[in-house]
Structures are given as structure tokens and as C-alpha cells.
Amino acid sequence: MIALLFAVLGATIAQQAQSPKPVSFFPSSGSGSEQAFVATYSRPGGVMDVQSLTLFIMNGIAPGSRSKWSADQCILSYTINSGVIQLVQDSGGKFLSTTATAATAQTVSNSQCSVLANLSSATVAGNSVTVSLFVAFSAEFRGAKQLYLSADEKEGTHDTDPPTEVGTYNVTASVSSVFVSPSSGSGSEQTFTAIYSDVTTQIQSVFLNLKSVGNNTVAANACKLRYDFGSTDIFLVNDAGTNYGSPITSGSPAVLTNSQCMVFGVGTYATTFGKNVIAYFRVSFSPEFAGKKEITLGGVDQTDVPTFSNLSRGTYTVTSPSLGASETFALSSTPVNIATAGASANSTITLSSNGEFNGSVALTCAVISLGESLYQPTCQIVAPRIVWLGTEATSTLVINTTAASASTLHNPAKQFSVFYSSVTIAVLFIFRPRVRWKWQTLLHLLIFANLFGAAIGCGSISNPVIEPTGSGTVNSGTTAGDYIVAVTGTSGSITAMTAVRVTVK
Fold first, then answer.
1. Which residues make Cβ contacts (< 8 Å) with residue 138, sequence separation at least 6?
2. Nearest Cα to Cα of residue 394 among 458, 346, 339
3. Structural Rg of the chain based on CA atoms
């Protein structure tokens, strides 16, 4: 029996000695918006049995077992033999069904990060394997992160080397993609409106990319556009997705083309609004690019820190151009300044035909939340919501805000519940019946009285009456700051949008 125990112990020690162990990891500390993480593992008996390496980039928590992986993390795995790269889904627990293969132009993304396969690789040398994973982070994942490594062997499905902390990394990505319109629809020509935000600095460049669904490359065979603010230059990527061609200037009659699309100098421009950028890209598509396309966004701040994501922000179906002239229209708006919370103001919405369009346009509006205000502005299209457009027409957008309130409002039902409970207790103690009640019975009645009163109070939870916890302001009203209201015009499959800039002082 003792001999058997020693044999088992010896086998366990031998197995541990043969398990892959991390030799080096780079960088063990650092910062940036994108990084090549390089890990080297060794195994005395050779690394041919090492199936995969997993890199955990965690937001303040340690990795658990795979089924308990937390949501909103950047966890990626590299399969040594095949070069397949996997990334955890946003909700955690398992990998995305979409993968990327090393040394290709593919990417795989979640809301926290993207892995660029063309810059990722694995090299086996003797008893060691070195894996390089190039990761680009999103602005939403900004901040200090903890780095862990683990390895899987072919004969097991569990981690033979449990996650080991190997360093820290500070994600500095700052450009957030806030909004794009249209995020659905179809056509052969379209002006896309994209909104970006950067809480730390001004934005230097913004990107809009349309690529075929299932094409998880960065920009190959795509319509990827770039707008630079300092020069107002517009760029279009080449067919291979490797370089931008010579630019044109916003407002010029010139155009840029590749095999997928054409971008116009007239109608392509951008404006800044606080820490936000509103960009308009006027694009016409080639017949060969017809089909469903995914929309992705990105940007670079003024410190040259890029933010890249291959995560879809919407889809657009490219159709073949009609034989006749293109029928489109455009929207523009006047900015809104509201002197104080609680006031209202109007913006004039102007609809313009390209000369060929003639028909009715339905207008809708939506507030794009950029701040933390609990009481966001509200919007309403008036006079009229459906516009008949020949050459030019106008409509009115009304922006309402909420004033701060210091009035004390009470919930009548809850007041009654307190009153009822108090009166019941007084009756039971002061006007007791002649019958000698046991203390247990009296206690039961007291509990019943309080529960009944509480039920009356709780039944009024749906009553939207604000109750302060003390004296003073009940709500702070609409917070001073910058807001954007998206006004969209729709006529059949034709859509156009204008972003109304709203400043509350």
C-alpha cells in the first residue's frame, strides 16, 4: 500500500515537472491603446503536446474557471498548431463563434478589445513556444488591467498551468464611437453620420469602415474612410486595405475611388462640439460591392493614440445604382442654446433635395446621451412631422429641459399606511377588549397591522411621485453641458440625418 502511494506521488511529481511553465512575458507593465503581448512557455519533454495558450486581460478581478469567466473582459486564446485565435464573448463564460487565423488579415472583436491576426504568431523552438498576440483596446475598457497566463495540453480540457499573474497594463484608448446613422437601411448612395467622443483630449482623425458581412479583415476589399481635422483632408483605403491614397479636401469637387466605393469632397465634412466630433461621409457604392455590409468606427486623438475596433455598429445593404438619376435629400439644422435648465428652445430643420427627389419625408428625433444627467433633454418634431419636399422645406424641432426642483412632494398612499399602522397600534394598547388576550395573540395582531400598512405603501410604488430623504433639492434638473439630438428623415429606403447641437447653460 505504501509503495502504491509513493508510486502515485512520484507520477504526480513527474507530471508537474512535465507541465508547461511560463518562461517570460513582455511587457510585464506598460500602457497604450494597442500592444503586442509576447509569452514564452517551456516544457521539458517538448511543447508538441501544448495545445493552446490563454492570455487574460482582466478588469480588477482574477480569472476563474472557463464557465465562470466574468463579463466585459478581454480573454483570448491561441491554438498552437492551427493558429486559430479565439476571444471571449461580452457576457463571459465562453468564446465567440467568430475566430481569426494568425498571419491573415482577419480580426476578432468584442466590446473590450480586438485581436489583429496579421500581427499575431507562434514560434516553436526546441522545448519552448513563443506566442505573440497583438491586441487593440476600446475606450470603454480604459484603465488599469491585470494580466494572467495559462496553458492547455492536448490530452486534457482543463488548464494544466492554472492562470498565473504576469503583469499589469494601463489601457489609454480614449476615442469612443457613440453613434452612426443609418445603422440599417439600403441604397447605392448614402451620407453616413457618425459621432465620436473623447473625454481626455480633442480628436485628430476619425474612421468609417463598411465591409462585407463575414469579412473580418481590418480593411481589405472594404470602403474605409478617414477624415483629418487639422487639414480637413479625406482619405480612402486601397483595395488591399494596406494604405491610404492621396487625399482630397473637404468641400472640393474632387472624389476618391476604389473598387468598392466613391467618396465625395462635397458633402463630406466634420465639426467639433465640445469633446465630441460629428462627421458626415457622403459615399456612392459600386455595383460589385452590392450586398449586406457591416459598419465599424474608430479614431485617433491628438496625442496620436489610436482606438480601433472591428466590432459592428450596424449594417447597410448596398444595392445596384438605378438607371435613372439618384434621388436623395439632405438635412441640416441650426444649433440650440438654452440659457437655463427648465427652458425650451427650437432648431430649424432644413430639408434639401438633390434636384431629383420629390416626395414626402417623415421626421423623427432622438436624444443621444453623452453625459451623466439623470434628466436628459427631450425632443419633439412639430410643424410638421411629415414634410412634402420639392426643392427645399423646413420643420421645427423643440428641445425641452427639466428645471431643478426643491419642492417637497409626498406619497399619499404611503402616508396613509403609516397613519393606519399607528392608529391600529394605539387602539390595541389603549382600548384593549375586555377579553384577556395572550401576548402571543397581541403580537400577531401587531405584525398583521404593520404588514397591512406596508402593503398599502408598497402598492403605490408605481406612483411616479418623488420623495426626498430630507429637505432640499428633489432633482438637479437637466445638467449644464453639451447634448446632441439626432433628427432623421425617411422616405421609403432613403434616409438622411442631421445632428443638432444643444448647449444647456
1. 111, 112, 113, 114, 173, 176, 307, 309, 311
2. 346
3. 31
Is a pLDDT exceeding 90 seen at residue 362?
A: yes
Lowest mean pLDDT: which of 12-26, 61-75, 262-276, 346-360? 12-26
Cis ω before 44 (30° cut-off from 0): no
- For 163-193, letters b (16+ CB in 10 Å) and e give beebbebebbbbbbbbbbbbeeebbbbbbbb
Report the pLDDT averaged over residues 349-362: 92
Contact assessment for residue 499 and residue 485, using Cβ atoms and an 8 Å cutoff: yes
Decide if 108 contacts 86 (C-beta within 8 A): yes
CA distances, 399 to each of 341, 366, 383, 479 (Å): 11, 11, 14, 14
Q: CA-to-CA distance for 351 and 496, rounded, in angstroms?
A: 9
For residue 57, the tally of other CB atoms under 10 A from its CB is 24
pLDDT confidence bin for 323, thresholds 50/70/90: low
User: Of 75, 96, 43, 59, which is closest to residue 149 (Cα–Cα)?
Assistant: 75
pTM over 0.70: yes
The answer to whether 123 and 129 have CB atoms below 8 angstroms apart is: yes
pLDDT tens for each residue of 159-185 = 456 799 999 999 999 898 889 999 999
DSSP 195-233: EEEESSS-EEEEEEEEEETT--BSSTTSEEEEEETTT-E
Look at residue 4 in the predicted model and tell me its pLDDT. Answer: 44
Write phi, then psi, for 235 (nearest 5 degrees).
Answer: -125, 155
For residue 429, give every residue at least 6 positions away whose Cβ sits within 8 Å of its Cβ, in sequence order, or none. none
Closest CA to 298 of 178, 169, 142: 178
Look-up: residue for cell 466590446?
A: 111
Contacts 24+ apart (CB under 8 A), 300-304: 300/175, 300/203, 300/204, 300/205, 300/206, 301/174, 301/175, 301/198, 301/200, 301/201, 301/202, 301/203, 301/204, 302/201, 302/202, 302/203, 302/204, 303/201, 304/204
Weakest mean pLDDT among 66-75, 342-351, 427-436, 496-505: 427-436
355: left (phi over 0), alpha (psi -120 to 50) or beta: left
Average per-residue pLDDT in the chain? 83
- Sign of dihedral through CA atoms 62, 67, 71, 75? positive
Cβ–Cβ under 8 Å, residues 209 and 224: yes
Could you tell me if 75 and 148 are in contact, meaning their C-beta atoms sit under 8 angstroms apart? no
